[in-house]
Write a sequence for this structure.
């Protein structure tokens, strides 16, 4: 999901919770842009999402009744360049070069750690992501069941034809 023109979010878990958190991030990004006339830094967005997740159990009348059941990958491009943060349901966030979440994430994370290099081109990174997904998915990888989004430096969701072109490179 697009958060702002320079931020995107992928999720694993409860979709309704993810939508609530992404909407919170969108509002925060717009408020920051309005107040400071600049894009919200990626780490600040991750911190804001985790602050929201930590509001569970604070004891006041506005406290949530249960924690959010979603893990998020927040990718973006800010003054520090490209970045990727993982926010988990406990309200902690960690910066990564490459990260997998969801079912099959253990195997995918191992494959990413083995194959990741800091000098990968965008095309090589796309191929690595899809080959990792292919290794852990039960279904066959196709343009109809895979989405690819880029934040390089602005958000773009690839069309099915563009996704198919990446699949053809595998």
């Amino acid at each position: 999901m697009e958060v702002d023109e320079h931020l995107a979010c992928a999720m694993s878990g409860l979709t309704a919770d993810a939508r609530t958190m992404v909407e919170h991030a969108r509002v925060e990004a717009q408020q920051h842009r309005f107040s400071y006339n600049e894009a919200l830094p990626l780490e600040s967005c991750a911190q804001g999402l985790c602050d929201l997740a930590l509001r569970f159990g604070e004891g006041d009348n506005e406290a949530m009744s249960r924690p959010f059941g979603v893990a998020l990958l927040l990718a973006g491009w800010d003054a520090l360049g490209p970045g990727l943060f993982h926010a988990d349901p406990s309200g902690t966030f960690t910066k990564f070069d490459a990260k997998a979440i969801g079912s099959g994430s253990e195997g995918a994370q191992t494959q990413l750690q083995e194959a990741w290099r800091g000098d990968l081109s965008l095309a090589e990174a796309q191929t690595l992501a899809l080959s990792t997904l292919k290794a852990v998915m039960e279904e066959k990888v196709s343009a109809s069941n895979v989405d690819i989004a880029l934040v390089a430096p602005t958000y773009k969701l690839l069309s099915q034809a563009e996704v198919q072109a990446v699949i053809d490179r595998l």
